[in-house]
Amino acid sequence: MHTESTWTTTPVTADLLRGAVDVEHTERGVLPHRLPALARRQIPDDQMAMAESQPSGVRLVFRTPATAVELDVVATKRVYVGAPPRPDGVYELLVDGRLAGRAGVTDGDVLTIDMAAGTAETRPGPVQTVRFTGLSGDDKDVEIWLPHDETTRLAALRTDAPIRTAAPDGRRVWLHHGSSISHGSNATTPTGTWPAVAAALGEVALVNLGFGGGALLDPFTARTMRDTPADLISVKIGINVVNADLMRLRAFGPAVHGFLDTIREGHPTAPLLVASPIYCAIHENTPGPSAPDVSAMSEGRMRFMGTGDPAQTAAGKLTLTVIRDELTRIVRQRAATDPHLHYLDGLDLYGETDYAERPLPDELHPAPATHQHIGERFATLVFGDGGPFTTARR
Fold first, then answer.
1. Which of 2, 58, 4, 63 is nearest to 31 (CA)?
2. CA distance to 19, 96, 145, 164, 303, per residue, from 206 (Å)
3. Degrees (nearest 5) of the Cα angle 338, 341, 342?
4. Is 48 helix (H, G, I), strand (E, B) or coil?
5. Nearest to 192 by CA among 183, 203, 202
6. What is the pLDDT of residue 3?
7. Residues 6+ apart with CB under 8 A from 372
């Protein structure tokens, strides 16, 4: 039993966090962000604001001989009216790079979202404690991966021995941007999102700018990528543009060029990979918008459907097939003067055959095992021999 006097309390500061772009100090704890303050002021909707505050890929990293670690947190639990209850977020403990424990909290702030009415309401909740015990007394590197899909304020960090900042491990930084699939939707653990799986296999340090509903070629995201230190960069574009029915073909091409131009202002020679969407049957040849299937929700299931008219593609409405063709054209054109630009067909990560074997449970997002599958394929194709990020290996 640890007494009050045996604990060391360490302030949570930016130098203990990896994968966060910014840190906000609030009355209820430190809130990691994946967009900087200037970008957050330009966010036009609550969905994007919520997504960037969810710490996908963010982890506390330190070195210590401690045998016990406690983290006081204020988690934000989401409740969707008419939808099944969401599982609690998972905190994962890694010791010297190996999984050593999982934990969670059952209470916190509660955000109730009514998608049909377009309303959201937050009820404040309590601080709760995440505990990991029984660790060896050896000096070791400790990582606590925060829940990828649960906004988390960090109120206090306690250990039964002092901690210090971990030394640099020499890994290159991989900066990735994508949709809810990259964010980790339907993954059950923070190290189980496909980018986290790929980063572990590729031996790189992940900064994940995957935002649920937010891969929309926003200039503030491009500027964030421009200004974030990185050795390797990837952008996965397409599904959100379609399911939000955001733009037509005439606007899409120049928007992609502008997004890539901005990234190149800060990273002129870094390997830059453009990945097209994975297979999604409801939008392969059907434009957006997508919408929740109300009949499925009444049965306690979440399912999405495409509501656009395929005939309107002739007038410039976007489908995933159209977007893959356009991204192929854009990358081929730009690569003529940018030898560090690369393209990856999303169907090579998850295609129609994969869909038949591993269906998307809600028709948009991969199941946990499929996140693992996609991460492994990305690692092979991108970090493996002959891939555009091969030199990332130490």
1. 58
2. 6, 16, 12, 21, 30
3. 145
4. helix
5. 183
6. 54
7. 192, 194, 197
Is the N-terminal amide bond of 289 cis, ω within 30° of 0? yes
What would you report as the CA-atom Rg of the chain, rounded to the nearest whole angstrom?
21
Neighbours of 167 (CB within 10 A): 8
Neighbours of 269 (CB within 10 A): 9
Is the Cα torsion angle 280, 281, 283, 285 positive or negative in sign?
A: positive
Cα atoms in the Cβ-side hemisphere of radius 13 Å centred on 63:
8
Tokens 């290159």 -> residue: 172
Distance separating alpha carbons of residues 255 and 261, to the nearest angstrom: 10
> What's the token pair of residue 299?
């049965």
Task: Calculate mean pLDDT across residues 246-266.
Answer: 98
Task: Provide the edge-to-edge strand list for the sheet that holds 272-275.
Answer: 205-210, 173-178, 232-236, 272-275, 341-344
3-state DSSP assignment of residue 38: helix
Distance, in Å, from the CA atom of 343 to the CA atom of 236, rounded to the nearest integer, reads 10
8 A C-beta contact, residue 23 and residue 17: yes
Closest residue by Cα to residue 307 from 297, 294, 323, 322: 294
DSSP codes, 233-245: EEEE-SHHHHHTT
- Tens digit of each residue's pLDDT (9 = 90 or more) over 149-170: 999 999 999 999 999 999 888 9
Phi, then psi, of 178 in degrees rounded to 5: -170, -165
* Phi, psi dihedral angles at 80 (to 5 degrees): -100, 120
Cross-strand bridge partners of residue 20: none
Question: How many other CB atoms are there within 10 angstroms of residue 124's CB atom?
Answer: 9
Q: What is the pTM of this model?
A: 0.95
Q: Cα–Cα distance between 352 and 346 in angstroms, integer?
A: 11
Residue owning tokens 């492994």:
376
